[in-house]
Amino acid sequence: MPLPRDPLAAAAIPFLPTTCRADDGRPAALLAPPASRAAAAAAAASASVDAGLRLLPARPGGGLGGAQEWGASTDAASVELRRAPSPAPSPSPFAAPPKASPLLAPPHVVRPLPSTPQPSHDPQVAAPVNPLHRHSWRAYGLVTAGGAALLVMTAAFAVYCRAKKVGTVRPWVTGLSGQLQRAFVTGVPSLKRSELEAACEDFSNIIGSTANCMLYKGTLSSGVEIAVVSSLISSKNDWSKECESQYRKKISSLSKVGHKNFINLLGYCEEENPFTRAMVFEYAPNGTLFEHLHVREAENLDWMARLRISMGIAYCLEQMHKLNPPVVPRSFSSTTIHLTDDFAAKVSDLDFWNGTKGSDSVTEGCTMLDTESIVHQYGIILLEILTGRVPFPEQDLPLEQWASIYFEGKMPLAELMDSSLGSFPEETARALCDVARSCIDPDPSKRPRMAQVAAQMKEITAVGPEGATPKVSPLWWAELEIMSAEAT
């Protein structure tokens, strides 16, 4: 029988006296069973090496077991001796016969002699292949192949879905997640007309209009206010390919800005029945800069509020001009500057396009204003903020020409400034007038860039980007997640 691996088990198994016989059949020695595994292995190995004997172990029932080959016994003995921590034998619980002399193990580790492997006739000698290993490798291969196939199918489906979507609009990089991120099919979330209809009270809450679109105010179920700009075109037959191209270019350009002093694009609506092309924006509830400067019913702006507004506009335009290509508002004046509850400026660009629909001017609308023109317009707005005068009065000189009287030294500063301001720091006011004068230079090549204007304004006013941004940012993203999930 094979030697047990556990030392306690080896000591507990009763061994019967074992007779070792030589090849000629004579008894060689009567071996008493040892109590430890190490002694048993040493004795068996010594007997096999010295006499080349065949060991016949006795079974627990008293009979002799089948003969084992010499090579197998020496291998087992060598393995057991390597594992045994101490080769010292312990007292045996069995009494040895009087004429038998026990074999002592040699002081060195017995190694098997090289021999030619003998064929074994015992079916237990050859270790059978474990079927569990074969099945585990087969299962591992099936799982790997299935995972690879699933990955390929997922990638193919993603490519197919991407090809089905419109590729003219680049993704809007945000930190959003969940349903809203999955709803980004063209860079911004696509919203349902029914949701916008409910938010805008069946599109009855009109707050403005242009030559080609209508502006509505809406309120989401969470109480967050939005602005919806919808095209006046109500038939697909009147919506040309040029209109569709400009509509998508508009979404693309607006989605790149993402500035805190900009009326950011929140989503769009595109449906065929009824025909709808609309854009959803943030809503600034405190009116426009034009209203606060020139309408008596509006709240008057103090000196610090005017400085903060002028700096917010400058920082926003600087960011828009840094983009590649630069994003230029299609129309830019004090009427397109909206104010938040805390009187922070919000630059807007709500028109779909400039020009008449279907004409060449539609596709060329984005080139009607360039960065130099925007710098000039900023100078005009800055003069509005300082003087409180409208750019084009009905019975007086245009603001630019009227201010040139001061620039020529023919008008005192006190007469130039808005009388409703009361007292103001004259040195700061003069420096701001110099910035406005450089912006409205008749030669566009001599006008500063918006980055230079913003740097000069910051040095004069000491108002940084954080001081010019709105203090309140409504949490409209959670509501948009729900609306986007329903739209998909």
TrEMBL record:
Superkingdom of this protein's organism: Eukaryota
Compartments, record wording: Endomembrane system
Protein kinase domain location: 201-460
Keywords: Membrane, Signal, Transmembrane, Transmembrane helix
Compositionally biased residues, Pro residues: 86-100
GO molecular function: ATP binding; protein kinase activity
Transmembrane segments annotated in the record for this chain: 139-160
Presence of keyword Transmembrane helix: yes
Entry GO terms, CC: endomembrane system
Topology in the lipid bilayer: Single-pass type I membrane protein
Annotated segments matching region Disordered: 82-128
SUPFAM superfamilies (UniProt xref): Protein kinase-like (PK-like) (SSF56112)
PANTHER family with a match to the protein in the record: OS07G0693000 PROTEIN (PTHR46084:SF23), PROTEIN MALE DISCOVERER 2 (PTHR46084)
Protein name, entry field: Protein kinase domain-containing protein
Natural source organism: Triticum turgidum subsp. durum
